[in-house]
């Protein structure tokens, strides 16, 4: 497979071809200022090109990490040796043709090509809301009983599909939890090292911001194992509640001999789940995080807890979520995306994406806005670009000098990344003091 690398002062991406002995060579016709066409390129040569560059970028005034589903797939593959199972496209007994057509339009508009289960759920939810509004007026006047029955059937099927969707997320967590101990431990060691490579910032630097589009709790689990404290918008311990007012809570300490100048406590990061989480639920006017064990087999027993007041799967805050109206649908996601835009659109900011396929136009738009600030930088790390969206956006933005690319089954592989290219997952004062 081709490896696409653009770092430092590269004018154009350098295309490397894997050799059978683990080395690399330049693709025919590719020009590269730091290696000759017939030279043999090994991991050490690539490391000297990447690791110091990333180390410098990671110490920018502001640093953010955007994680997509690629991280979940990588951890699952390391722990189980198999690919993460997904949920197949759903079939509806009513309005199926309309849902499929609208899902196709939605997928093409976002550049994904084929629609997935999330497109179907979102379209079905919007259709259900529209039909419910319609049935409150015209349907009753004209006595259209069949429409009322179809609406009821669509509502029931959407509940079933949402439950299956949520449980497919939990099945991925369960696969990790029951994997062979040695492989599972190795996978989580890679995850811990990955997270700490970004979170290891000195007390004089702004906090790392972690953003993710994932619904699962793999990042939270890795953070717990790493001793990394995650700060989010939820307040409380027993039944945490989402707060709209952004409380800029942090953790500081007073260094010995210094008064009135507290520094950031190490091992803390801000955390935002842009598309919600499988353990978030809408209760009344509040968004709560409820106690759902990692890899639970069935959601039902946990939704029947007295504090949840008879909640159902349609109240789970996983986007595309199913809620009563557009005003509620905008909450809490509007708050989360506002956080994302505010954090990354700042001078001297570096945004690193890992496993994100650039399939969410609303996120891409903010990234494009960020790059209009000359001192910002985008680092894209991905195992592949099969859809072509990464390179398409890279060319469209016309901000190549502000971009670093690491794409390929070697450069974007989690183990390879952790072992060879990411900065040391610690704050290393000793090395910097060496003569």
Would you mind describing this structure in some detail?
With 435 residues, this protein is α/β, with parallel strands linked by helices. Helices cover 42% and strands 17% of the residues. It has helices spanning 43-58, 69-80, 96-110, 117-142, 145-177, 181-199, 218-226, 300-303, 326-329, 333-344, 361-370, 389-397, 414-421, 429-433; strands spanning 2-6, 14-18, 24-26, 62-67, 208-212, 229-231, 234-235, 241-242, 252-253, 263-264, 268-273, 276-283, 286-289, 316-318, 349-354, 377-382, 403-407. The strands form four sheets. A ten-stranded mixed β-sheet has the order 3-2-1-17-16-15-4-5-11-6, with helices on both faces. The protein is globular. Residues 322-328 have low confidence and may be disordered.
CA-atom Rg in angstroms: 24 Å
Strand order of the largest sheet: 3-2-1-17-16-15-4-5-11-6
Mean pLDDT: 87
| Main sheet: strands, sense, barrel | 10 strands, mixed
Total beta strands? 17
Indicate the low-confidence ranges by residue numbers: 322-328
Coarse morphology = globular
What is the helical fraction, as a range of percent? 40-55%
Short description:
The protein is α/β, with parallel strands linked by helices and 435 residues long. It has 14 helices and 17 strands. It is 42% helix and 17% strand.
């Amino acid at each position: 497979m081709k490896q696409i690398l653009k770092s430092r002062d590269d004018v154009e991406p350098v295309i490397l071809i894997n050799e059978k002995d683990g080395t690399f060579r330049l693709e025919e016709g590719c020009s590269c200022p730091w290696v000759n066409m017939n030279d043999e390129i090994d991991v050490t040569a690539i490391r000297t090109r990447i690791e110091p560059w990333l180390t410098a970028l990671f110490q920018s005034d502001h640093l953010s990490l955007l994680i997509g589903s690629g991280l979940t797939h990588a951890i699952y593959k390391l722990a189980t040796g198999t690919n993460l199972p997904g949920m197949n496209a759903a079939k509806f007994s009513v309005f199926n043709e309309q849902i499929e057509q609208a899902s196709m339009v939605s997928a093409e508009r976002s550049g994904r090509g084929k629609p997935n289960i999330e497109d179907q759920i979102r379209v079905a939810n919007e259709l259900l809301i529209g039909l419910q509004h319609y049935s409150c007026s015209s349907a009753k006047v004209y006595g259209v009983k069949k429409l009322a029955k179809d609406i009821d059937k669509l509502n029931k099927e959407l509940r079933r599909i949402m439950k299956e969707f949520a449980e497919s997320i939990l099945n991925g967590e369960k696969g990790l939890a029951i994997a062979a101990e040695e492989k599972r431990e190795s996978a989580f060691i890679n995850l811990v090292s990955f997270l700490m490579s970004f979170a290891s910032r000195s007390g004089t630097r702004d906090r790392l911001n972690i953003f993710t589009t994932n619904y699962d709790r793999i990042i939270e689990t890795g953070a717990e194992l790493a001793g990394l404290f995650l700060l989010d918008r939820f307040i409380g311990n027993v039944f945490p509640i989402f707060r709209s007012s952004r409380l800029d809570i942090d953790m500081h300490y007073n260094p010995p001999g210094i008064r009135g100048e507290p520094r950031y406590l190490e091992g803390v990061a801000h955390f935002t789940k842009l598309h919600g989480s499988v353990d978030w639920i809408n209760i009344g006017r509040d968004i709560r995080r409820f106690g759902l064990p990692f890899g639970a087999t069935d959601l039902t027993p946990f939704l029947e807890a007295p504090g949840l007041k008879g909640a159902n799967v349609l109240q789970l805050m996983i986007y595309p979520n199913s809620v009563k109206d557009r005003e509620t649908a905008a909450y809490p996601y509007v708050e989360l995306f506002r956080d994302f835009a505010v954090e990354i659109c700042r001078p001297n900011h570096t945004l690193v994406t890992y496993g994100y396929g650039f399939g969410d136009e609303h996120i891409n738009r903010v990234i494009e806005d960020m790059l209009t600030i000359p001192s910002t930088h985008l680092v894209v790390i991905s195992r592949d670009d099969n859809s072509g969206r990464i390179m398409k956006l890279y060319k469209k933005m016309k901000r190549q000098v502000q971009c670093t690319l690491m794409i390929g089954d070697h450069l974007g592989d989690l183990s390879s990344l952790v072992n060879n290219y990411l900065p040391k997952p610690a704050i290393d004062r000793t090395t910097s003091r060496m003569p």
